[in-house]
Structure formats: C-alpha cells, structure tokens
Amino acid sequence: MYSLDLDIFNTYEDYLCKINLPEYKYGSSMTDYTTIIILDKSGSMFNSMETITRQFLPELFTKLNYKDDQQIIIITFSNSKESKILTYNFSEIKKGIDIPTEGCTYMKDALENLNEILKKINSDKKIRILTISDGELHDQRSTVEYSNEIVDTIQKKNLLVNSQAIRFFTSSCQPDTRGLSSCLQFSNVTCPILLDIKAENFIYEKYEDLFNSDGFENKIMLKCEEDYLKVEPWNNYCKEINLKKGENIFWLKKDIGDKLLKGDNILKIDTLYQENGIDLDNNISLKINLKEDITLKNYYTFLSNKIDFYLKKLKILRVVGTDNSIKEMDKIIKFFEDFENKLTLKEEIKNLDNSLNSRLILISKQIEKKKTSIVNKMNQIKNNEKISQLNSKQQAEYLRNVDVNDKTSKALARRALTSGLDFDEMAKNEVIEISKHIHELDGIDEDKLCKSFYSTCNTLDGIRLVSKLPENKEIFDNMTANDIIKLLNIVGVAAYAEDGNYPDPMTYRLKKIYPSTFISLSDILVAYEISNGENLREIGNKNNEISTCIPYFEEERIHKFLLNYAPHLLELTTSIGMRKIISEVPYTYEYTILAGYWKMIEILLKDKSEINIRTFINFIQNYRMVAKPHFEYVIGLVENQKSLPKNIGSLYIANNGITNMTYPLTELILREKNETDKDFIQSIIRATYQFEVYQYVRKLIRSQNPETINDFIKNSLIELLNIDIEKDRTKLNPVFEDDDNLPINDNYLPNIEISKKKYINNIFWLDYIVAIPTLLKSALNENNPIEKMKSLPDTLLTDEFIKKELGIDYDINLFRFNCIIQSFLYRDKASRCDSTNKKMLISDLYYNLHFDKEIKKYVKKVFQEEFQKDKNKKTKEEINILKNEIVEKSLNTNTINDFTDTLIKGIKRNSIEINILNSDSIGFNDLINSLLEEEEENKANIPLRKEKLFILLTGRKENAEIIWNQGNCLRDIDKIERAKKIFDKDWLEKYEKMKAEFGIYLYRGGDKVCNRHGHSNDLPSYWAYGYQSISEMKENEKESFIKDYYSKHIRCCGLVKKELSYRQMRKKAKREGLIGGVNYNNKKSSK
User: Fold this and answer.
1) Are 646 and 846 in contact (CB under 8 A)?
2) Which alpha helices (H) appear in 383-514, and where do they start and end?
3) Arithmetic mean of pLDDT, 539-559
C-alpha cells in the first residue's frame, strides 16, 4: 500500500489541490497513447531525411522506452493535396524507414489528416505529437487558421495532448516558427518546446525531454464518483484526471473539498501495476493535508510551474495570432484577472466598510498590486502586436524567452476596443471635466438627497469623491472605467431585471421595482464582485433580488451636471445595470430611466401609495430631460399631420412603438389645450396601440418556418374570423353549365375569445398606453399631485375608460380584434406605410365600418380562391369528358377524312373546346395508345387502324399530302417501334419511305442559315432526325448513316476527330469559314 500526500489550499471559490508523484513508477509502462509525427518531406529535406528517419526517430523512441509493437503514425506533407498517413511499428522504425522527398512545403493538408485521426480516437485519450519542418510554409495563413479546428477537436473530446516541435535546419533559411507554433498550441499537459536542430551538426542528447514529463507511460488516474475535478480552472468539471510524475495541480469543488477534509473517502487513485507480465491491483491511499489559504502574496509560489506553462502558452498563442488564439488568451487572462481581484478583495475587505472612502482605498491597493501581478505580464504578452511583424528567427527567440519584460515584448501601445473606443480614457476625461466644474454643485442641500442603504452615501458624495481622483496622478492614471464607476455612486431606486446583451436597449424591461429602497449601481457592482456573482437583496425581504437601479435625482442641478460633463459615464454605468458589462450602446441611460417610468405605470395601477407617486413623478421629470434631444423630432413629425384633412388613414408615427412614443406623448399631453388637441392625442394613442399589436403578431409570424409562413397567416385568420370553408363555399353548377354569376361568401364572425387567449393576453402592457394621459395630468398637477393621483379609481383600466381614451365608439374587444386582423393582413413595413411620403397605408381603426369592408374583402378573397380551385377541378373534369369523346369518335370513324376532321375540328361544348392538332395535344396519347394496344377483340375491329396510325406517325396521307401535325413525323421512338410491329410489310415500306423523304425537322430561316448550335436544313442534328440523344440515334440507325453523320458533325455536336484538338479545330474553322462542311460565314469554301 502506497500513500500520497494530497495538499489542499483554500481559495475564494474552489479548493486548489496538489499531488506530488515521485520519480519511481507506480504503474508499469503503458502503450495506450497515440504517437503522431508530422513530417516535412519537401525537396529541401532531400539530404536530411535519412538523418531523421534512420537516426533521430529511432534514438528518440528508444530513449522513451517504446515497445517493438508500439504503433507510430507519420503524417507527411510537401505539395498541396499530397499529405499521406503512414503507420509503422517501432520495430520497423528501429530498422530505419525510407520516406522520399519532393515538392514544396504545404502543411494544411497534414493538419486536416491529423484532425481526422483525432476525431476517430476515443475521448480522454493521450496523444503525443511531434512536428518537424525545415522551411517557410507556402500556406502559412491557411495552416494557422485551420489549426483552430484541431484545438476545438481536442477540447470537445477532452484529449490529453503533449505537442512539441522541431525547427530542422537544412540550410541558412529559417523554418516557419508561426506555422510550427500553431501545432505547439495543441499541448495541454506539459510546456511545449520549440527545438532547433541543425542537420549538418546533428548532436542532441536529450530527445526524451520532449516527452518524458507527460506521464503517458504510466496509467495513474485520480477519480471521483461525480464531476468534481478540473485540471484547468476555466474548464468544465470532470470525474477523473490523469496524474503524471512530478507536480500535479488541479481544482476541486468547494463543497466536495469540505467533505474530503471531514474524512469522507470521495477521491481514489486507480493504477495498474505489472510484475513479470502479470497485472496486479495496486492500491494507493491519499493523505489529506489542509494547507494555508491561497493569497495574493503566495499564489505564485504555489502555482509557479503552472503559471510558467500558461505564460509559454500565451506566447505561442500570440505568435499564432488568429482570432481564436486571441480568444483563448482572453480566457486564460480573464481567469487570473478575476482570481487576483477576488484574492485582493478577500484580503482587503476584512478591514474595510462599505463606504466610498474605503472603496477608494481598496481600488488604490488593487492598482498598486496590479503593477507586479501575473495578469500584468500576461496582458503584456497579449498586447504585444509587434510579434506578428518579427521574422521566424525572432519569433523563435521570443518563444524561448521566459521574461516577458524584455525589449521584444515590453511597453507596447494599448489595444483599442473593437468599436474604436477606449472606455478607460473616456471615463478619465470625464472625471477631469467633473473636477473642473465641481464648484457648480456648491450650495445643494444634501439632507434632501437619498442615500444608498449599502454605502450610506448619496450621489453628490460620489461625484465629489470622483472629482478628487486626478489629485493623485499615479493612482488616477492606472484607473479603469470600472474603478471609476465603483466610486461615482449614482443613487437610484432598486430594481430587478433579467441580465442580457440588449444590443437594442429599447427592449429593456424591469421585472420588479422597489420604490422604498435606494441603492447605487456602484454599490451593486461592488457587492456583486465581493459575493462572487450574487445579487443584493431588498432590505426586509430577502426574496427580492436587486440587479440594477433606476437613477433618482431630487436635485435637478445634479442631473444636468452629469448630463453636461459625464454623459458617457452615465451610459457606461447603466450598461452595467442592464448587461453586467461595460459597453457604450447609445441611449442605454435613457432607456434605463424609461424602463423605470413604465414599471411605475404598472405599479400605480395597483398601488397609489405616496412613495410610488413620488417615484413616478421623479422618473417623468428625469426622462423628459434626457429624451428631449432624441425624440423631439417625433413631436414635429406627428404635429405636421395635425393640420392635414382628416381621413381614414392611421397617423404616421415612423414605426415607433410605445417605448419611443412615450416622450412625444408625454409632451403633447402636457401641452393639451382643447378638444382638438385631445382628439389628436387619441389618434396618436390608437396608432401606437395598433403598432404594438403589429409588433407582437410580426414576432409570431417570424418565428414560423419560412416555408409555412403563408399557411400560418391564412390558418390564423380563418380561426380568428370563424371562416368555415366547407360549409360556406360556393356550390358549382353541373358540368358544362356556366358558374360566372354565382355569389361568393364574404361573411365572418369575430372570434373574440381566441383573440384574447392567443394574442391580447400576451401583450400585457398594451392597455398601459391609454393610462398615460390620465396618470401624467394627475402626477404633474400644479396644485396637489399626490392627492390628485390618489383620487383616481383603483380599477382605472375598465373597458369604458379604455374606449374613452382611445376615442372609439364601438366595443373595445372588437377594436383589439381589428388590430390583430390588420396586423396579419398587412404584415410588413412596405404594406403598412409609405416612408418616403411619411404616410400610412393602413386605416385608423377608429373607422370600424371601413375596416369591416377590408375584412370582408379578405374573406371574399379566401372563398374566391376556393371557388377558383373548384372551378379548375370542374374544368379538368369537363376536358376529360370531351377528351374521352374525341378519342372514342376518332377510333370509330370509317373514313380518313372523318378521322382528320375529328382531330382538327375537335369537339366543343359550352366554353370548353378540345382538338388533337399535334402530338402535344390533350388526347393524343390516349388515341395512339389505343391504336397501339395488342390485338384484342375490341381493338382488332377499329376501322382503318393502320391508316390512322400511319397519319399519326407521319402527319401525311399515302400520297405525301400534309393533313395533320404540319406534316412532321412523330419523334417518340417507343411508339414508332410498337407501330412497326402492327404494320404489315406494305405499310412498313410506305412508312420508311415517308420517313426517309420527310422525316427530318425543317429549320427556320432557309437552307443556308444555321442556328446557334451550327445546325441547319443543310446540316440537320440528331434531334431533327427525331432522336433525344446521339446514343439513341446510334441504337436506331444504320452504321452507314452514323458514319456519315459523324463525318459531318465534327465540331457542332462535340464529335471532334482524335487527330484534331479543339484548338486546331477552331483554327481550321476560322481559316476555312466552315465547320462540318457547311459555310457559316457565307463564304465560298476553300475546297
């Protein structure tokens, strides 16, 4: 029984664990790992390939104790698309193998082969990869980009990979460092090595250093019953990890580590020990040791080997330089950044309170520690964009240099964000502006300002603290936007909303709001970080989460001050509340306040307490100040329509929903003076109401499969309008009777219940729109707004109230129903409005009778379509009846004249007429098939059967007179062969003679003019002879005919003689002005 020490270190989150595996083996040599060599066999390797295959590889695998039957895969690469996969046993490698050299250096194909191999390997397997190349890659870019796919495969299959690379010098030229680095990034168990070997002076004694530290030769696994372990802190948890000799570091779930320390036997080590070729169980026990807590001071000491590995990994990823490698770098750096920040918080918050001054002290200490932190070194590597400009030799030296503070990688320019904005500089510039103008806030009564329950500071406290930051230049210069936001302390009403990206902040909505609780977004951010991602809770009610707040300004001067001197800080701060990330999406601040405004409308409809009323009034005032520059144009847009003659068209609001119409409505309601103004506001509310319903219906439509959208719309309208197609469809008259004057149904019955259940009930905010005028007028009443608001009915949104505010005189449910129907009938912007002329194409649903006509028009259209379908079906039936009659009549005629008259003149009944003029006419196939059927009693009695067949096949009488089908012969080979079996010798001779004389299709334009294929009446094609293809013609014509055809159609049908190439034929044709014996240039032949 062996015993191993498992050292456990407590961090801010998981336990960090360390097991040291001694040099002696716990398990015997195993061969369940895969070895892959990616080998350059380009022409420049000609004199050195033997050195690699007969010296280097045999010595390498001998020192790594490979067994004779152990498999080694070699993937070669040279010219594009010539990579090969070769498989050998080590015994073959020892004897020496021969790999011929040739061509250029294209490596991407080799990586594609590698990826295919890895995909076939089982998950959690071990892979050794060695890449050898001597020159610059001709496909470096595509090779490096494709390497990202292999990284994905390795991660998805959880493969353990030790990938190393050799720059093999066969000349003074430098091997491709970037291309080889793309393979080094595969390594995830040991530090990758970029080794230089010179072919002419090949002495390297430590080949085994490339692979001997990966532990692949020993099968020692640390296991647990559930997913509690992870080797890399950013990976997912797993049930087992591979242990190698030397130091092993991994992370363990916190709660599992606690159980382990209490004595629970959760972890175990599985190994395989072999003695004299016999497998034996070998138990290894774990001795659990709780060590000191991980701190910012000691974590590098404990993780030094791991951190060195990450630093080298970052350098490789920097050299690779693809978008995916940058993302991988960000993932590594993000962990250590959070790790260091949380360790700092853990150490410092013990002696600090929640005040802003304590927060400033903490941020200052964090900044000081960042200067010497591992994250700082990592960021220097990531930001070193000059690496891509180095040559292969310099890049190789960069990879081998452990110190990231050397001349190659130090003091590079700051990376700008993708948007071109540097939030840190932007924030600091606005802090400087705040500092310059802070005197403008003198004289404000701070006793009237609300304070955050967390920091016990008000907004003015935060602004004043931030204004002093530039005084300490050393600290201020190193501050980030995040640091400044933590201090700004804009206090507001606590709220909860779901975190999301919200690329369009207009869609932001609050789930809950707590008007009696004040907090700042600075406090929310700090508390979120300290608690490892936990939201704050409302005081007195721990079930109410706080994820954001809506800024609340009692003093207008403070709000104007921030709008003037810190507008970007307002955007960045509220972005954290909305998205939990810093980003400057325009109007984030504005829509944050609007979200509070709208939530308070919802709250006031249920609870008109004084705190709720005051909060609503504050949000209105703040929103009016912020939204004016953005939406003042909409007021002008709608007011321009006020003086226009009244018509049935809806008001044009430029496709703005209630979110964007809130400010225009607010201002226009407050400016209302008379009934005309009131009517106009009602028309705005109706237009907005209609648009909100349309938005919801459009979303439903877009969620459907594109192929079935039209069916969804039709079925939805049928359901809503209670259309019964089967019951109310127009009944047709009997066949051959006119149906043109039959009535088409246009009646419908509104399905109000369905409109509520499937649509209106899901647009819960819809009726809040009509509450705005009443709530606004009361809240901003000059005399006593509180009492005015409290005097409003508890159930404000009654059907009668909504009808009154919308200005309609018919049932509110029918109005809503009309909104839904209109949204389905006019489902896109083009059908709803004319943006160029700023005019709506849909009607104002104030006019119910007019829209009723629109609905009836649609209903009639539905039944008209069904009527047309039925009519088409009836027409087909009528045609089929006449077709059978004309076929029967033609078969039974006793003279050829009657036969041809029947075919040409046809049969007509009412408006339906049918005749058989050619082989494409309706009834022709039925007629000729009846004539071609086997000799049966009923068919044998057909009058003039052979004569009728002769006419259908040739279009002529026996004397060659054209009587049908313009004298063209039938081209259907199958029918012709069947007819020949029915003809006797006499009729067969007549047919062959007629076909030979008149069986060729006649081209338009005369004898000397060819078509675009080169065919004419002088040079007819196989098609003109009645065949669909040349092969069909060969099967049915004599050899002499085919030989003659081939000799004439040398170019036009692609039948080029073997002795003439295509280019020669073109020259010949150009020279002679002819092809296949026909003069195409209207010149005399040279012959």
Assistant:
1) no
2) 392-400, 423-437, 459-467, 473-477, 481-488
3) 93
Closest CA to 851 of 860, 862, 843, 841: 843
pTM for the model stands at 0.61
pLDDT value at 598 more than 90 = yes
Sign of CA dihedral 878, 879, 880, 882: positive
Helix, strand, coil share of the chain (percent; to 5): 50, 15, 35
- Average pLDDT taken over every residue of the chain: 84
Task: Look at phi and psi of residue 232 and say left if phi exceeds 0, alpha if psi is from -120 to 50, else beta.
Answer: beta
Q: Which residues contact 687 (CB under 8 A, 6 or more apart)?
A: 650, 651, 652, 653, 840, 844
Q: Which helix (H) or strand (E) holds 696?
A: helix 675-702
Contacts of 352 (CB under 8 A, 6+ apart): 358, 359, 361, 362
User: 360: closest CA among 264, 253, 462?
Assistant: 462
Handedness of CA 687, 693, 698, 701 (dihedral sign): negative
3 state DSSP class of 3: strand
132 and 168 Cβ atoms separated by less than 8 Å: yes
State how far the alpha carbon of 1069 is from the alpha carbons of 1055, 1060, 1066, in Å: 14, 12, 5
Cβ neighbours of 653 (radius 10 Å): 23
Is 1051:1069 a contact under the CB 8 Å cutoff?
A: yes
**Those residues with Cβ within 8 angstroms of residue 710's Cβ, 6 or more apart along the chain or in another chain:** none
Q: What is the chain's alpha carbon radius of gyration, rounded to the nearest angstrom?
A: 43
pLDDT digits (tens, 9 = 90+) for 260-299: 888 888 888 776 554 444 444 456 778 888 888 887 777 7
Alpha-carbon span 553 to 463, nearest angstrom: 13
Neighbours of 741 (CB within 10 A): 5
pLDDT in tens, 858-905: 999 999 999 999 999 999 999 999 999 999 999 999 999 999 999 999
- Dist. CA 508–CA 524, nearest whole Å: 18
Question: Reduced to 3 states, what is the DSSP secondary structure of residue 908?
Answer: strand
Alpha helices in 708-847 (DSSP H): 709-720, 725-728, 752-758, 768-779, 785-790, 799-806, 812-825, 829-832
Do 167 and 396 contact (CB within 8 A), yes or no? yes
- How many residues are given for the chain? 1087
- End-to-end CA distance of the chain: give it in Å, rounded: 105
- Residues 1014 and 751: their CA atoms lie apart, in Å, by 67
Q: Nearest to residue 40, comparing CAs of 176, 145, 159?
A: 176
56 DSSP assignment: I
Contact, 267 vs 286, CB < 8 A? Answer: yes
Instruction: Tell me the three state secondary structure of residue 237.
Output: coil
For 991, the enclosing helix (H) or strand (E) is helix 985-998
Q: Which two tokens stand for residue 998?
A: 């008149």
What does the CA dihedral 751, 757, 763, 766 come to, rounded to 10 degrees?
50
DSSP letters for 641-669:
TTTSPP-SBPP--TT--HHHHHHHHHHHH
Q: b/e map of 442-479 (b: 16 or more CB within 10 Å)? A: eebeeeebbbbbbbebbbbbbbbbbbebbeeeebbebb
CA–CA separation, 541 and 548 (whole Å): 16
Angle in degrees, 0-180, between the axes of helices 521-530 and 481-488, rounded to the nearest 10: 120
What is the DSSP secondary-structure string of 242-306? E--SEEEEEEE-HHHHHHHHTT----EEEEEEEETTEEEE--EEEEEEE-PPP-TTTHHHHTHHH
Amino acid identity of residue 242, one-letter, is N
